[in-house]
């Protein structure tokens, strides 16, 4: 089964992609659910990343989208050679971090 994954604690899909809805993606609101869905269903055909994911259940700053990207690269063990992703975060520094990490890792994989 192919699917698209949308990581964002607040926004819905149509707030980012005008012609798409939550029905076009699996929407996850935190890093735990992000990892769970990928481990259960495999790598999505597209991941759309937000970075700032609000507070966790203990009112601490939640693990962010950059942490999710780092998990994919360094811990997941999943082949990311064909990963397609978009960063829709409004945080410009974090957006560049996510974009740079994933772009550079995929470039590295393709150079092997």
Task: Tell me about this structure.
- The chain is of the alpha/beta class and 112 residues long.
- Helix content is 37%, strand content 12%.
- It is built from 3 helices and 4 strands.
- Strands 2-1-3-4 form a 4-stranded parallel beta sheet, covered by helices on one side.
- α2 (65-74) links the parallel β3 and β4 (85-87).
- α2 packs parallel to α3.
- The radius of gyration is 13 Å and the shape is globular.
Keywords for this structure?
112 residues; alpha/beta; 37% helix; single chain; four-stranded parallel sheet; globular; 4 strands; 3 helices
Strand and helix layout:
Blueprint: E1 4-7, E2 26-28, H1 31-41, E3 46-49, H2 65-74, E4 85-87, H3 92-111
Parallel strand pairs: 1-2, 1-3, 3-4
């Amino acid at each position: 089964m192919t699917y698209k994954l949308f990581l964002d604690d607040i926004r819905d899909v149509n707030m980012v992609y005008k012609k798409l809805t939550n029905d076009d993606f699996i929407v996850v609101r935190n890093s735990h659910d992000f990892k769970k869905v990928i481990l259960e269903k495999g790598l999505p055909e597209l991941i759309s990343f937000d970075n700032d994911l609000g507070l966790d259940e203990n009112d601490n700053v939640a693990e962010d989208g950059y942490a999710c990207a780092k998990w994919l690269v360094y811990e997941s063990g999943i082949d990311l050679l064909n990963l397609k992703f978009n960063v829709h975060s409004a945080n410009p520094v974090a957006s560049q971090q996510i974009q740079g990490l994933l772009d550079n890792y995929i470039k590295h994989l393709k150079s092997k």
